[in-house]
Amino acid sequence: MAIVLGPNRYGKAEVRLVRVTRTTATEHELCDLDVSVSLSGDLADTHLRGDNAHVIPTDTMRAVVYAFAQDEPLPAMEAFGLRLARHFVDAYDPIDTARVRVLEYPWIRIPGTHGPHPHAWTRAAGSRYAGVLHGPAGIEVCSGLADVTVLKSTGSEFHDFLTDRYTTLAPTRDRVLATSVQACWRHRRDDEGASRDWDASFGATRDTLLRTFAETHSLSLQQTLYAMGEAVLTEREDLVEVRLELPNKHHVPVDLGPFGQHNAGEVYQVTDRPYGLIEGTVLRDDATPALADLPWR
Hints:
The chain contains 5 helices and 12 strands. The chain has 297 residues and is of the alpha+beta class. It has an 8-stranded antiparallel sheet, covered by helices on one side. Strands 4-5 form a two-stranded antiparallel ribbon. Strands 10-11 form a two-stranded antiparallel sheet. Helix 4 packs antiparallel against helix 5 (221-235).
């Protein structure tokens, strides 16, 4: 029996970066990122013999992230991730594959006396995500969002499900449906993103996901998940696959009978755990398979 080294990679995780672009002395733009870099290639010697000749220190990876951020105002996350991934593959011969994940924490300007304040912000809800893989099989990009909490107070049912002696859940024709949307979508592989408007693509996809959640009369969260992914692919020819995670944020009507009151669907107990977790992928039937190591969030 032989013991061999299997797939491996290494990198610098969660490099925190804030870039302030000083348009004028008082008018500023803010970009808040969390960047992770992971590299693989001809690295067997460091594992098997402790020979580090092909090892790029993770401290160097961190420095590259900061240096590239200084070069110019940060572009869209996908474009920044592509630039980093290409650098690590092109600049270092032992490296053949780079994975870059970029998470953006959005900030919104604080309202001021004469409009939005030019250099003061408050953190907004949710986050934006981009993942880039640059490897021997090509370049692939995915985008996404996380922790976007949505709720609809009607337009959702859940009934006619499988029951047995362990079933305690009552069927309902009207319920509160709430979830925290975690979504990633894969871009079509064509021009490697050279001329793509990443910000416009992200905004349109986000709007479609949220609009479909709101407008779909839901018979199950699974049905809603598929409808959200289907709507995105119908409207966005530049996308080929959508992955969704939708945790069910349970809102349980409170029994007010012991207090002599009737709850007409107005008072709910919110539970944070345990929770139902609905996961699924919606894709075009002719989509090129995703590269195995694509850094989905």
